[in-house]
């Protein structure tokens, strides 16, 4: 037995089906140049940043369709115009509070300034103060006890004379953030900082009202400072949750992303093949048939991450084997491998959850959406039980939150849910596949 790189038989250095985020950083393994499409959305976001003294934009869409990659592309462009940012995002957490989100923002701005200005910038008084506060936050030492992961409210005591009272953080942190933004604009002569906040659904899924309150609290204490441009990334429902208050909604611009089309998916993979090409004198053998790729992507309803994960799963059992090792994967071969995997995952769910998934499959055609009211009727259970089972199925990837639809009245739009790619494959098979 030996360690084998199966991709070499296709003249590829590694798997082209990776789900890692593209990075604008120099020398990145998966550079931002591999980005495909979204020109209109990119330009709209850039226009807002360039035209406003401060901005708050929400990039929303379904799970796995490329929201974070779009923001990475935007960040690569703003750097060319002198804005400060980081290759990474600040990830929001389930237990975040107003104070911890503000600290994440403060840390992001501080690190962006430091990354650009180096050690000389780090000696400026406001940067030294920020470093002390952030160090105390990370270590919960030196008299600091910073709320994080439900640990409680913030208390800070540092050598800076004006940060002593334990209750001063809600007042002092916004002031410190403003001083950092002033430093960027006035001393560094930069147009601003682009702050990337990811996983907005972590806040809203835990408690949508609390998520809305956090953003409302931050509206005038951090989100409206000159030179700061925020990019919030999350699902449609999470953006709806945080902008539920009129005073927040009025200062946010939302960009709803739709899935890449099948042609753009092909272009994306072709770029990856070229980037990962092992021998420039030999051609790359595509790992999957074009028709099979389109059918699988249709089954996953634009879920790029889910499609790539399915391709990766099948490839580990299929690539480099058979009479022609370099032959592309076919629909029938992939179906066999994926069914085995998804059936095994289904067995990890409870009997009742599997039964409800089956009932959901039998109740509608591919692409049909169900509201929670629909599922209460189909499953014959109450609202709280529906929410619980939906959470299990969404976590397992068998159900996906789809779009929100108007109620026809004054109420908020209703969330639709659809069967995800794994469930559709188990119950309906791969479109275009011959059974005979």
Q: Could you walk me through the main structural features you see in this protein, from its secondary elements to its overall organization?
A:
This protein is an alpha/beta fold and about 425 residues long. The protein folds into 2 domains: about 1-15 and about 270-435, Arc Repressor Mutant, subunit A, CATH 1.10.10; about 40-255, P-loop containing nucleotide triphosphate hydrolases (Rossmann fold). The chain has helices at about 40-50, 65-80, 100-120, 125-140, 170-185, 200-205, 210-220, 235-240, 245-250, 260-275, 290-300, 305-320, 330-345, 350-365, 370-380, 385-395, 420-430; strands spanning about 55-60, 90, 195-200, 230-235, 255, 400-405, 415-420. The strands form 2 sheets. A 5-stranded parallel beta sheet has the order 2-3-4-1-5. The chain has a two-stranded antiparallel ribbon with strand order 6-7. Strand 6 (about 400-405) and strand 7 (about 415-420) form a beta hairpin. Helix 3 runs parallel beside helix 5 and helix 12 (about 305-320) crosses helix 13 (about 330-345). The radius of gyration is 24 Å and the shape is globular. About 40% of the residues are buried. Mean pLDDT is about 85; it is low at about 140-165.
